Amino acid sequence: MPTVSMTVNGKAVSGDVEGRTLLVDFLREDLRLTGTHVGCDTSQCGACVVHVNGEAVKACTMFAAEADGAEVGTIEGQANADGSLNVIQQAFQDHHGLQCGFCTPGMVMSAAALLKENPKPSEAEVREYLEGNICRCTGYHNIVKAIMAASGQDVAIAAE
Ligand code: FES
Ligand code: FES
C-alpha cells in the first residue's frame, strides 16, 4: 500500500492507504478527524469540503494519494489559537446558521474559502458559491446571513 504524507491543520501526518482510499476516508478513519462529514455518495452535498493547498475541495472527490504532499485544512483546524470560535464559526452561532449541523463543517470551510478570495461578497455571490453545499434543513437564509456578517457587512441586506 502506498504511503501518503501531508500536512493537516499544520501538523505533518502520514499513513498507508489503498490507491482507492478517498481523502475524506483518510481524514475520518485514519486520522479520526470526524468533523468532515459524508452526506452523500454522489459528490453533491458538500458536507465533506476541506481545504487542499488553500482551495475548497470536496474530500470525497479526491483520493488520499492525490493529496500527497499537500497542505490540508479541516474544520478541526478552524478555531482560533486559543480555542475560541473563529469569525465565521462565531457568525454561524450568532445568526443561527445551523440547525442539525450536519452540513455546517462543509459550509464553514466553503465560506472560509470564499472570503479568502472575495472578502466582501454580495449576497448573490455567497449564494452562488454555496451551490455545491446542501443543507437538508433548508437553513440557507441564516447561513447566508452568517457569512455576510462574517465578512463585516450588514446582515440586513440579506433578503428574507
Ligand atoms: S460527501 Fe462529498 S459531496 Fe457529499
Ligand atoms: S443544518 Fe442540517 S443539513 Fe444543514
TrEMBL record:
GO terms for molecular function: 2 iron, 2 sulfur cluster binding; metal ion binding; oxidoreductase activity. This is Carbon-monoxide dehydrogenase small subunit. InterPro entries: 2Fe-2S-bd (IPR002888), 2Fe-2S-bd_dom_sf (IPR036884), 2Fe-2S_ferredoxin-like_sf (IPR036010), 2Fe-2S_ferredoxin-type (IPR001041), Beta-grasp_dom_sf (IPR012675), Diverse_Oxidoreductases (IPR051452). The keyword Metal-binding applies. Residues 2-78 form the 2Fe-2S ferredoxin-type domain. It comes from the Bacteria. Keywords: 2Fe-2S, Iron, Iron-sulfur, Metal-binding, Oxidoreductase.
